[in-house]
Specification:
Elements: H1 5-21, H2 26-30, H3 39-44, H4 54-65, H5 71-88, H6 95-109, H7 125-131, H8 136-150, E1 156-161, E2 170-176, E3 181-184, H9 195-201, H10 206-210, H11 220-237, H12 241-254, H13 259-271, H14 275-288, H15 293-305, H16 310-321, H17 326-338, H18 342-353, H19 360-372, H20 376-389, H21 394-406, H22 410-423, H23 428-437, H24 452-457, E4 465-468, E5 470-472, E6 475-482, E7 486-492, E8 500-502, E9 515-521, E10 525-539, E11 542-552, E12 565-567, H25 569-572, E13 576-580, E14 585-588, E15 602-608, E16 621-626, E17 630-637, E18 644-647, E19 661-669, E20 672-688, E21 691-702, H26 709-716, E22 720-722, H27 723-726, E23 731-735, E24 740-746
Parallel strand pairs: 7-12, 8-11, 17-22, 18-21
Antiparallel strand pairs: 1-2, 2-3, 4-14, 5-6, 6-7, 6-10, 8-12, 9-10, 10-11, 13-14, 13-23, 15-24, 16-17, 16-20, 19-20, 20-21, 23-24
Length: 750
């Protein structure tokens, strides 16, 4: 994380809530506790560079965030680590040896790693030390502070790699004694990458590098400014804008030309109801960097909320610059709503809902649009999707309650509205709707008031297993118990054939490898595994015994670093299972049972599973047709981040709308290497059986220049239907033993 990454995270929540649900009343904003910078921190930040120590400044910033901290105890703990590092550095006279010693101490002796959640605890020094976890900024500050505490004259500097786009930047440290320079990436266990690597990875331009700040050796005051900018962002994230203001003002006292600090301060001012001050700060950010995307988003947001004619131009420029950006597209939807183009707004939001960055507010906004369009059933469905992401979101409970009320389900509506009011006692909309219902007896007024999902639960045949799941970044997670000893957080992945155990995160004793294999994944590349046998995998009440799985040691810096377990089709193909997105439940059906009929409001299409040549029989392939004329075989892959289609003709010839290139895919065509462009677009229609889905967001790979039959055959396996589309349905059932799949969705009036 670096200075503008926090703002990039903040924008979706604030803009999505503001644009469609309205700004908080000023009286509520004014009720926040007034907070000042501590006197000790304020005085410390006035020191010149030569009198600043990152360790001392970082600890005072931690004290600002956690007033209860015992600084003497924290300094003692830091000093102890510094003394240990001094011992580890003994004999390391040159930079390569110093870097090696630092990496060994941090990652092997102390076992520092990456955080489970990217919040303030991931970068505040005392939290990083206590949790042994930190993000790029937190681990960089740790390195710098320990270098100071060790007393060894290490020439170590913080190196910001900030981004002016919506993408998150990065922070590393660098050894630099004028004769030798060695980059040390703390989130990759001290890996060394040249500057050119970061220029390419973070798409840095000559303008980004011109000032010397990005990829330069930062001053100690600049490093403390990074901490303050991120702390201010964390406060805004937590709804504590008043606490953010003095922290961000302090950041600007250290680095006045920080576009990110001005932009975050604008966000805080806007949250407090001071639009004029917010505009002033956004303008200051844009004077520093006219292309700074978060500030441009903020200015467009304000222009839109004020009904200014410039809003259209500003939003169009943002969408043109970053067509897939959630914040920009949300502003586009809000602009369409202002023009009373609800259908256009719904299309934009539907596209957003399929993006990996979709969150609770995307679905809340979609529910709001459906409700305004008079479609209570789809509004209900959208709000239920929102609650999958955040079951404590008051707006989602309120919207769901109002949708249920519109459908005449008063008992259920009252329960949702009560939940909204409990979460947010100031929610006037929820209070008004609840008052409209009046008192509700505990028993339903009539049988039709009971939730369809609850009625279905009564129909489960004996032996059915029902377990909850959650969705994060379009991945489905369930809890499994391994060898009746350890619980693991498992990704349910219908695209992988072999179940995978990450032994860096899940410790199981007594596993003996039978042989080694190399697994190949489209997104993760090659992964070496040892094949071991688990005595049991327990999913709820269902137990799979004596199951071979791949075991890999995938720690910090790998693509599996935050994954315990991948539950693949070698396990799932043994049974019929339903992924109920409406209720966030995985249902494992007993053998020889029948799939219960759908509710009256749900339509179901059932299709046969097919097996392409050379394909594994345990994977779920179906036939589907895109744009009415492009029939192909698709893998139902819950591990895929977007529906994808490989076009062996120019996409325009196959009916796909023109779109900006989103990236390239490298392949080998015969003996020659090729880079195939792919595009983020929308499938006008996708037909599965008799069901027709419209405007499905996805990717198209242009493989029109591929000639090798082998290469074409391999590419065809990239046709996938992933979770971003699947979660827009009520439920998906895969039955490999029965060779069928079923897709349930809310009935759509003709």
């Amino acid at each position: 994380m670096q200075e503008d990454a926090r703002r990039a995270r903040l924008i979706p929540m604030r803009i999505l809530t503001t644009l469609i649900f309205g700004l908080l009343p000023l009286a509520l904003a004014g009720a926040e506790e007034s907070v000042r910078l501590s006197r000790e921190l304020s005085e410390y930040l006035k020191r010149p560079e030569a009198q600043v120590r990152i360790a001392d400044g970082a600890l005072l910033i931690c004290k600002q965030a956690h007033p209860e901290l015992d600084l003497a105890a924290e300094r003692k703990a830091l000093a102890a680590l510094g003394a240990e590092l001094k011992t580890a550095l003994a004999g390391a006279a040159k930079i390569p040896q110093q870097a090696e010693a630092l990496a060994k101490y941090l990652y092997e002796q102390q076992n520092f790693g990456l955080p489970e959640k990217d919040d303030a605890a991931a970068f505040l020094l005392t939290d990083v030390i206590r949790n042994k976890r930190g993000n790029c900024l937190g681990l960089s500050v740790l390195c710098l502070a320990l270098a100071e505490e060790s007393g060894v004259p290490l020439k170590l500097y913080g190196v910001p790699i900030s981004s002016r786009t919506s993408e998150s930047g990065h922070t590393i440290v660098r050894f630099d004694d004028a004769a030798t320079r060695r980059n040390f990436d703390p989130v990759e266990k001290g890996a060394e990458h040249p500057n050119d690597y970061y220029v390419k990875e973070f798409k840095l331009s000559a303008d980004d590098l011109r000032s010397g700040y990005v990829l330069g050796n930062a001053s100690k005051r600049d490093v403390l400014a990074l901490l303050l900018v991120n702390l201010g962002g964390a406060y805004i994230d937590d709804g504590k804008a008043a606490k953010a203001v003095p922290v961000l003002e302090a950041a600007l006292s250290l680095r006045a030309n920080s576009a990110a600090a001005h932009s975050n301060l604008a966000g805080a001012k806007l949250s407090l109801g001071d639009t004029a001050a917010a505009e002033k700060e956004y303008a200051a950010a844009l004077r520093i960097d006219a292309k700074f995307f978060p500030a441009r988003i903020g200015m467009a947001d304000i222009a839109l909320s004020k009904g200014e004619t410039s809003a259209t131009r500003l939003v169009e420029e943002l969408v043109a610059q970053e067509p897939e950006n959630v914040q920009a597209r949300t502003l586009q939807a809000a602009l369409l709503i202002q023009r009373n183009d609800l259908k256009g707004a719904i299309k934009v939001l539907n596209d957003l809902s399929a993006a990996p960055t979709a969150d609770v507010t995307v679905w809340n906004n979609l529910g709001k649009c459906y409700a305004q369009n008079g479609d209570a059933a789809l509004a209900e469905d959208s709000y239920r999707r929102a609650l999958v992401y955040d079951d404590k979101n008051a707006d989602a409970h309120c919207g769901l309650g109002r949708a249920l009320l519109a459908e005449g389900k008063k008992t259920d509506a009252a329960a949702e509205l009560d939940a909204a009011i409990k979460l947010d006692p100031t929610n006037a909309t929820a209070k008004a709707a609840r008052a409209e219902i009046g008192s509700i007896a505990k028993a339903p007024e009539n049988p039709n008031d009971a939730k369809p999902a609850e009625q279905k639960a009564l129909e489960y045949p004996k032996g059915t297993t029902v377990v909850p799941f959650r969705i994060e970044a379009n991945r489905i997670f369930v809890t499994v118990r391994l060898n009746d000893a350890v619980d693991a957080d498992a990704i349910l992945d219908t695209g992988t054939e072999i179940t995978l155990l990450n032994s860096a995160r899940v410790k199981l004793n007594g596993l003996r490898a039978s042989h080694s294999e190399e697994l190949i994944g489209d997104m993760v590349g090659r992964v070496a595994v040892d094949m071991v046998t688990l005595d049991s995998i327990k999913i709820g009440d269902t137990v799979v015994r004596t199951q071979p799985v791949g075991r890999a040691e995938q720690g910090a810096g790998t693509k599996f670093e935050r994954i315990d377990f991948v539950l693949g089709m070698d396990v799932l193909s043994k049974m019929r299972f339903t992924i109920d997105f409406n209720q966030s439940k995985l249902i494992l059906w007993p053998a020889n049972s029948k799939l219960p009929a759908p509710a009256a409001t749900i339509s179901r299409v059932q299709v046969a599973l097919i097996r392409p040549p050379s394909a594994s029989p345990i994977r779920a392939y179906i036939s589907a047709t895109l744009n009415g004329k492009n029939a192909a075989t698709f893998l139902v892959d819950t591990g895929a981040d977007a529906p994808m289609f490989v076009a062996f003709k120019k996409p325009s010839e196959l009916g796909f709308a023109a779109a900006a290139q989103a990236g390239t895919l490298r392949i080998v065509d015969g003996a020659a290497k090729q880079e195939l462009p792919y595009y983020q677009t929308a499938f006008a229609t996708m037909e599965i059986g008799k069901a027709v889905f419209k405007e499905v967001g996805g990717r198209v790979i242009d493989a029109s220049g591929v000639n090798s039959p082998v290469a074409r055959g391999n590419l065809a396996f990239l046709n996938v239907i992933g979770t971003p589309f699947l979660k827009t349905l009520q439920a998906v059932t895969i039955d490999v033993p029965g060779h069928t799949a079923a897709f349930d969705r809310v009935k759509i009036d003709p």
